[in-house]
Write a structure and sequence with these properties.
Blueprint: E1 2-7, H1 11-20, E2 26-32, H2 36-46, E3 50-52, H3 55-59, E4 66-69, H4 76-85, E5 89-93, H5 100-113, E6 117-120, H6 127-137, E7 144-152, H7 172-188, E8 193-201, E9 204-213, E10 219-225, E11 234-238, E12 242-245, E13 254-258, E14 265-268, H8 277-288, H9 299-316
Parallel strand pairs: 1-2, 1-4, 2-3, 4-5, 5-6, 7-10
Antiparallel strand pairs: 7-11, 8-9, 9-10, 11-12, 12-13, 13-14
Domain Gfo/Idh/MocA-like oxidoreductase N-terminal: 3-119
Keywords: Oxidoreductase
Pfam families: GFO_IDH_MocA, GFO_IDH_MocA_C3
Length: 321
């Protein structure tokens, strides 16, 4: 049984902790929050035996093996860093940090101290996403020519909300656009060049459009937005067909393989819980095996995605404190 501690008590921490109960070898034994009453309430709701009003105190708990970091983006680095220094394995919410430099520091620290570290890009572990990767590798749609993905949801403008606050790592790209970018990287790798277009409000990207270019004319067309409701869909186009993920491609329950002259090939998944249990099971597996990274979301992949995000943000004119 792998013992977990959860840092933060917000919405994402709530749903991920709920899904941890679906993994037999994962046992959440502690939670921390800046507010002790909030930590206590969260602990009672999830049946967690220990709670702390300061995450440093939780990191000193010798019973904890893995720390799940669910804080806002801007504090991912410092919390993950302190957890690694305390010898705790780390699952850190995406994006792992707000800058490439900080991501590199975390990876270096994990390798130096031989401690597991993984970015919580849960999409990579969804069974249908794994099936798509296998189909593409087997040539089910021929050679990939392009990838299209978007993630946009209207967020009322509020300068005090983290989404609109540069100090909190706000903007559409880090919060939502990381999904399309990671999806494209998963299938095409790191691009040769990046072109961007976007709208800045309060110093953060309210919307962003990215064109990632690869060799032989292959490209990825990606977008994110806080200004409009997007389909949140993805399409992988190949020389012999295409794969369509109609909605919520980041946690798909269905997709279709479409080939000219043939009936669509449907793939479906009956999702139990919210879908986070697959990445939790992966962390448990790797930590129990004494490994420091996952082959499905390795350190180098996290850094490659951060390089793309870093360059795109720079071209959009976004600069975080």
């Amino acid at each position: 049984m792998t013992k977990w501690g959860v840092v933060a008590t917000g919405r994402i921490a709530d749903v991920v902790t709920s899904d941890m109960a679906l993994v037999p070898d994962a046992d959440v034994i502690a939670v921390s929050s800046r507010s002790t009453p909030k930590a206590e309430e969260f602990a009672k709701r999830h049946g967690i035996p220990r709670f702390y009003g300061d995450y440093h105190d939780m990191l000193a708990d010798p019973g904890i093996e893995v720390v799940y970091v669910a804080t806002p983006h801007s504090s991912h680095y410092i919390v993950a860093r302190n957890a690694l220094l305390a010898g705790k394995a780390v699952l850190c919410e995406k994006p792992i940090t707000v800058s490439l430099k900080d991501a590199e520091r975390l990876v270096e620290l994990a390798r130096k101290h031989n401690v597991f570290l993984m970015e919580a890009m849960w999409t990579r572990f969804n069974p249908l996403i794994k099936r798509i990767r296998a189909l593409v590798a087997d040539g089910a749609i021929g050679a990939i020519r392009s990838v299209h993905a978007d993630f946009g949801a209207f967020a009322p403008h509020d300068p005090t909300h983290r989404l609109w606050d540069p100090a909190a790592g706000g903007g559409s790209l880090l919060d939502l656009g990381v999904y399309p970018v990671s999806f494209a990287h998963m299938l095409l790798g790191e691009p040769k060049s990046i072109a961007t277009h976007g709208t800045l409000i309060d110093g953060v990207d309210a919307e962003a459009a990215l064109l990632l270019r690869y060799k032989n004319g292959v490209f990825a067309q990606l977008s994110s937005s806080l200004l409009g409701h997007y389909p949140i869909a993805a399409t992988v186009v190949g020389t012999e067909g295409r794969i369509e993920l109609p909605s919520k491609f980041y946690r798909p329950t269905e997709f279709s393989v479409v080939r000219p002259g043939e009936d669509d090939e449907k793939h479906e998944l009956e999702l139990v819980g919210h879908g986070y249990q697959y990445q939790i099971a992966e962390v448990v597996k790797r930590v129990q095996a004494g490994e420091i990274e996952s082959p499905d979301m390795p350190h180098e992949e996290t850094l490659a995605v951060m390089r793309t995000l870093d360059e795109a943000l720079d071209k959009l004119g976004v600069s975080y404190p």
